Structures
1.
Amino acid sequence: MVKRAYPKGIFPWFEQEGFIFWFCTHPRMLMQPSEVYVSKSMRKVLRDETFQIRQNTAFEQVMRACSEIPRGRENESWISERFIEVFLALHQEGVAHSAEAWVGNELVGGLYGLKIGQVFYGESMFARQSNASKAAYIEYCRALEVEGIKLIDCQVPSEHLNSLGGRILPKNHFLQLLASLQ
């Protein structure tokens, strides 16, 4: 079900009392990997190799770190154990992926999502050290561009993603674009 829903712009947002709530948000934030914005200060962080960026070496750790971030009115994460189980299975299938920022042997930031067709569907990111998630995201955008990924679905608008080059589209335009990339 998950692999069919995302290409239609629908994603699971949270679980409550055993029920999964699915959404197609309006407006929608998206980004093209080739248009990721790298500020002067982030160029220095990347040039200095402050973080070692890896892919898919700690998928479950990334998801669990993202689940520890308080969100929403009740300061609870939407990433339940059920979500983790589903995404771990998708990771084993080669559909779910992570990008991680490491300092030595310590995971300090990262993100995860799904690759389906020419789209990366971003789910969540975390940082335990300043600029860690940004570094992972920027380097991952570069890798996605090389792989031929044309669009990153960021789902919900945020200042953080806006600062990295995200743009907002009305839902109907987003869905048309999404359909053209399947």
2.
Amino acid sequence: MKVDYHSDLKEVQSDGQLAQALSEAHQSAPFDRLAWWQGLSEYCGLVPLLAVARGDDGALAVLPLAGKAGHLTALSNWYTFRFRPILLGGRAPLDALATRLKSRAHRITLSHVPDEDGSASALETAFRKAGWLVLREVCDTNRILPLEGRSCDEYLAARPGKLRTTLKRKSGKMVTRVLTEFDGEAWAQYESIYAESWKPEEGSPDFLRAFARAEGAAGRLRLALADDAADPQGPAIAAQMWTVEGGTAFIHKLAHREAARPLSPGSVLTAALMRRVIDVDRVTLVDFGTGDDPYKQDWMEQQRVRYRLDMFRPFSPRNWPVLVQIGLRGLAARAKRG
């Protein structure tokens, strides 16, 4: 089994097999692609270390990591819905990566790992087999909406009564539009709305703008704006950024001006986008990303768990202070329960 490490992601583009495996042709979610990791490196200050294992039979495992000084983390941040290894042709290459990474790190922390596809279990098994101490815990929630063949009208009819009443009362007070291509003026409006919203400061506006531009060029962008019907020539009052691919609509960003809150612009705009992705794009799933905010429960019907995996080389002295703290917390929790 051949194992390589890439700190320069540009060199990966010249590796035919690897670049193809991490391209749009093979990965139907942005978080699994080389372009996403390049954006995190270029705009978000992450130091990449792409760990790659390949077998003679073409089997492949890619674990996108970040960091240095012996403690590696997932190559991801607040924009990433979920993190997972890329596996092609079985799990033997992942076993090889878990073994060989012992020479690169004393600790590896991976957050927001799904297990509906077996990713968390595969990582846990591989690293335990390689001699790592693995701690696995729930770290977040992912809210989703499986459509199961419903139209948008059928879906909206099943929403909570309060939300249906809000949409009935407020929809006529706004004009909504959905763009499928990147538009500089529309994006400037989004940034203006975000700046006047309840949201915290944007983590990396340059990353998000570059991502939206690329998704627009690929035809996957759904950028929606809402205008006050009483002031159609005024500035937009709400904006949302979604992308659509592989039968899934991903809800990346949403914001509205605080002054427009009485109009419920966020709910009206979400409903407009739901109608677009359900009835026009014909998606089978809507993914609302991470976080279990109460308002998401009105729109989504199911939730999925996201895990944090903390892997330690147990005989590394650099891990002992952390392991002692974890042990003490465990004893305190058991004492409290008892």
